[in-house]
Design brief:
mainly alpha; about 0% strand; flat
Length: about 300
């Protein structure tokens, strides 16, 4: 007859080899293989267009369609970049895009930060409605409002009160680009503003500061990472915009870079000959400033993306 201790003794079952394998360091690495494969696929899918443009930019025009295909040009050249910079309309387009994108970014940040201060630090009736209105404005495609915008821009300055006409000027782009940059800026900066601690603000009010002094002396310096992140995204959106620039600009001297890229013609001047090497070189040229801005403001971008993630 068995004792009570023998009856309570646990039954030891053998551990399967597969379970031991999946809990070993090698097994854990094998389980990560699908994740790494997915990362590689996304990485290649995202960078291949830029790599292909880089390849075509350094390839001589006569070797672009040579067979067999060479992913790395055997005779790299800078002629395509020279052709792009020699085009006067492209140089002017770089300046125009810089002026428009810079002006849109500054206006979006100036107006958006003030609006975010009101929406993020004060509670009033209709606040949620305004926030959802800002969010809904970012959902409309540009083509949906293009007709109404064209009527407004082309008719501006015609009527009882004479204003300077802004159609076919950079002012038309400056005003219309705010339609998609300003709601996004207000929405994002409001989230940053709500995440800021209220102790410093209350202390400033106790010391006799006005609401505007609290805004630009206390809260605005704390909002710097959010301003850099939001401003960079607004700048990129304005720099890459094509539809409004195509609709409101007719003078080649006022082209922005997306329109200028489509204006390159081959040496023969025929519409059936596309200088793909020059076009790809111009694409690389207009991408470099965006990459440089991201690298310069990388520290602020990372701080801005993580701001508000931890409360307290």
């Amino acid at each position: 007859m068995s004792t009570a201790s023998e009856a309570a003794e646990p039954v030891v079952r053998p551990v399967s080899r597969s379970r031991v394998f999946w809990h070993s360091p090698l097994g854990r690495n094998v389980k990560r293989v699908p994740f790494y494969l997915l990362v590689i696929i996304v990485f290649v899918y995202a960078l291949f267009p830029f790599a292909w443009a880089l390849r075509c930019a350094f390839t001589p025009e006569g070797d672009l369609f040579s067979s067999p295909l060479q992913y790395i040009p055997s005779n790299p050249t800078l002629d395509n970049f020279k052709s792009a910079f020699q085009a006067e309309f492209f140089r002017k387009a770089l300046l125009n895009s810089a002026l428009v994108a810079g002006g849109v970014t500054l206006l979006s940040l100036a107006i958006g930060s003030l609006a975010a201060f009101a929406l993020g630090r004060f509670r009033f009736r209709g606040r949620s409605l305004v926030m959802y209105l800002m969010l809904s404005m970012t959902m409309f495609p540009s083509i949906a409002i293009l007709g109404a915008l064209y009527t407004m821009i082309s008719g501006f300055g015609i009527g009882f009160i004479e204003f300077p006409k802004i159609y076919d000027t950079l002012w038309a782009l400056l005003f219309t680009y705010l339609i998609f940059t300003l709601p996004f800026t207000i929405w994002v900066l409001t989230s940053f503003m709500e995440a800021l601690p209220g102790d410093l603000e209350e202390a400033a009010y106790v010391d006799g500061a006005t609401p505007f002094q609290v805004f630009y002396k206390v809260l605005l310096p704390l909002l710097l990472p959010g301003l850099v992140t939001t401003g960079l995204l607004a700048f990129i959106a304005a720099w890459n915009e094509y539809l409004f620039a195509l609709s409101f600009i007719q003078d080649p001297d006022k082209y922005t870079v997306p329109i200028a890229i489509t204006s390159f013609v081959g040496e023969s001047g025929s519409a059936f000959q596309q200088p793909w090497g020059t076009i790809m070189a111009a694409t690389i040229i207009i991408t470099v400033p965006l990459v440089a801005l991201v690298l310069v403001f990388q520290r602020f971008i990372l701080a801005g993306l993580t701001a508000g993630a931890v409360k307290g």
